[in-house]
Amino acid sequence: xxxxxxxxxxxxxxxxxxVSVGQVMFARPLVAGTVAGMIVGDPxxxxxxxxxxxxxxxDVMPVGAVxxxxxxxxxxxxxxxxxxxxxxLGTGVAVCVGLGVAYLGEVGIRxxxxxxxxxxxxxxxxLEEGDESVVIATHLRGLLRDxxxxxxxxxxxxxxxxxxxxxxxxxxxxAVLVTIVxxxxxxxxxxxxxxxxxxxxxxxxxxxLGVAAGVVVVVxx
Amino acid sequence: xxxxxxxxxxxLIHGQIVVGWVQALGVKRIVLxxxxxxxxxxxxxxxxxxxxxxxxxxxxxxxxATEMMAEWxxGPDRTIVxxxxxxxxxxxCNGTDQIEKVNVGGLHDATxxxxxxxxxxxxxxxxxxxxxxxxxGVEVTAQDVPTAxxxxxxxxx
Amino acid sequence: MRTLFRTWLRTLVVQASWxxxxxxxVGSAYASIPLLRGLPKERHREAMARAAQFFxxxxxxxxxxxxxxARAEYEGLPDEQIRRMxxxxxxPLGSVGDRLIWAGVxxxxxxxxxxxxVLASPLAGVLCFLVLYNLAHFAVRGWALRAGWRGGxxxxxxxxxxxxxxxxxxxxxxxxxxxxxxxPVVADWLASDFQTRLRFSIASxxxxxxxxxxxxxxxxxxxxxxxxxxAFGLLAGxxx
Lengths: 221, 157, 240
Known about the structure:
By secondary structure, chain A is mainly alpha-helical. Chain A has helices at 3-19, 29-39, 43-57, 71-82, 87-122, 124-128, 132-166, 172-198, 202-220. Helix content of chain A is 80%, strand content 0%.
């Protein structure tokens, strides 16, 4: 089978994993991007964009139901963009595609949730009466909506990837610049996320200790 | 002042509180103001068990909270006062002049309520109650987590 | 036992009909179906209606509510008591799950995955991450439903389980350390393609990002910062 079919399939699995099915974390960009990279035969490029998007994803606090960027499908599209391009050249533009698709996925989730809400309101009477068949039907319709969202967002992402690959909007120097800006932004987002995660107490000291240990690892290697 | 947040949230202590606000504001104590919870041993145990070590949880009825508010404001521990419904926060604000800001965190669907924000459902009476607080000079805003933008009162009532 | 397993399988999709009115209420009713089937007809209808009401929890902990409420239904507890019990579980199951998983196991495993990706290979990093994370994930899911079913109305006691309490105490610092460790390692790896001058630019943008997120506009979020950075980068790259 053509690799884009596998990518579409993988993107759908990743999109469903984010909220609806299992949440075994296929939807983490590190996983989604690396596997997508393997599908297109470039695991290093996929892993690299996966790492950059993973840093962005560390900034998300998944306790608020309002914002839910879909970095997983974003990483699939980004890996498809980056595959084959040499190192730093591809990363920046690919991450741009990934961020755009992540945002698209977030908009899609809000749409699915609104449709689900309307569905529940239409079936309010039956749900209040405890009609089992209506519970099953409304629940499975929700699952169907998220499946459609995942397919649609992945398809849009792959089209965007193909377009970016074919008509790269920037020169070689420009591509390096974009990579620098986005790698910097990603590190900043992850550092802010890590600090927020650690709060102000004991954990913050452990965060500092971790950074120090990381610096030691870098210097030693 | 040591009460750093006065919040209305029908889920009371949950993830947005212990992961979001407690971390962001460096909170040491949560006072849970709810007549039903403070009178129910099973529920008190449940909420006590679900908070991180080092975070103190206390329970109070609305009447007790009205009396204690001034003391909490001056106390040494950074505190979140968490109220379970609009009726209680209106009663609390009317009983004491200590509260300057109220955060509406999450009020969910129930009979008679309509959706105002993704996470705020209010009946007309509740909306009127919050507006009245606003007219009395209490700054009422809706905000679920510290990283979200606060929504002004007229945006959801 | 098979009934409990079928219920557990359904808790895997508990969030599939997420909606603003009932959140995962209908999902929790859907998951309860195999477990509630043994109730007499009238009670079964009432139980379904209660189960489909507004409910929210950490998705991995939702099984605890499903199990505890089903047990209470079989014990014939009155309507009002079950409703209050269900409502009272929302906050605690959210706060325990969010701290245990979203602020604990997940960032801890992500940090390990990133570090291994850099030091070994992306595939090794991904495998490490998935195995570590899902060992904890499935342990929590399996325990939650069984503890709920065992505990019924006194399910609160189950939260005192040693594993949960130890996890709550240790995972915060572990996650903080793990993410802290990964940051310089990953930053160095990503910057290694560039000359010193360009690395300095990367660091400046990172500092700007932290400042923006911590002090200037905390509500902006990483994605929006990234999109703005991408727009500037693309524009500059196109003009340059």
